[in-house]
Amino acid sequence: MVKIISYQDIEGQFDIHNSVWGSSAKTFHMCGQFEGHVYKNYLKPILQNQITSRGITYLEHLTNLSKIQSEEMMSTKLIVVNPLAILGIIMKKAPGKLLVTQDVSIEQVVSSDNNIREAILDISSHFEIFDLNEGSIFYSQEKGTTLVDLESYMESPNDNTHKNLITFYSKVAEVLHYTPELLELINNELRKSPDRCRMEVIYDVVKEYLNCHQLEEQDVKQFTKKRY
């Protein structure tokens, strides 16, 4: 369950020299009693009574998301506030590094022991995944794929299974830097059915394309790894 704390409770317990700027927030690695967590400080505080597009307050929205229990999804457990506004959120630090910064093959990703697909299936009857960007997907060989920034997910009474799976797997393929032609082939497979939305399917499409054109995987990647 989510816990609401004040900024004074965390003051001096995050590394001001080890941070990452985003478009709407700055993220700090934490220390002290919050070791192993990160603090996402909103650049523009959100009023506690601000209503979302789903007709609930943003505080209620974060509370709902905090109920997600998954090792593959870093949901918010602590909300940092002042008397009027939400200043930011604290979540467990994701294992590994951003996938987009790593030179990783699809074979490495598919062979990782990971339950991310099951985690997405579990939330798809309650939430629709919004704004899954390259800064939201972490990867380690030991822990597989992890998602952060869950506060962008939206409550939904619909079955979002196929949409959520396509959103995730198409973004993974994009983050792996495949060329537009190969991305389109992958996305065509993902669109067929929820069951086709699997890392193994991406692997099969990539391998078939490489064998057909007598190429190596690096030959069909259009960018070098990024630095964050």
What form results from the Cα inertia axes?
Answer: globular
How many separate helices?
A: 6
Radius of gyration: 19 Å
Mean pLDDT: 92
Low-confidence stretches: none
Strand composition percent: 15-25%
Count all strands and give the number: 11
Oligomer: single chain
The chain-level structural class is alpha+beta
**Helix content estimate:** 25-40%
Give the spatial strand order of the biggest sheet.
1-5-6-4-3-2
Biggest sheet details: 6 strands, mixed
- The span between the termini is 31 Å
Order of helices and strands: EEEEHEEEHHEEEEHHH
Q: How would you describe this protein?
A:
With 228 residues, the chain is of the alpha+beta class. The protein has 6 helices and 11 strands. It has helices spanning 58-65, 106-111, 116-123, 161-175, 180-192, 199-213; strands at 3-6, 14-21, 25-30, 37-47, 78-81, 85-92, 97-98, 127-128, 137-140, 144-147, 154-155. A 6-stranded mixed beta sheet has the order 1-5-6-4-3-2, covered by helices on one side. A 3-stranded antiparallel beta sheet has the order 7-9-10, with no helix packed on it. Strands 8-11 form a two-stranded antiparallel ribbon. A hairpin with a 3-residue loop joins strand 9 and strand 10 (144-147). Helix 4 (161-175) runs antiparallel to helix 5 and helix 5 (180-192) packs across helix 6.
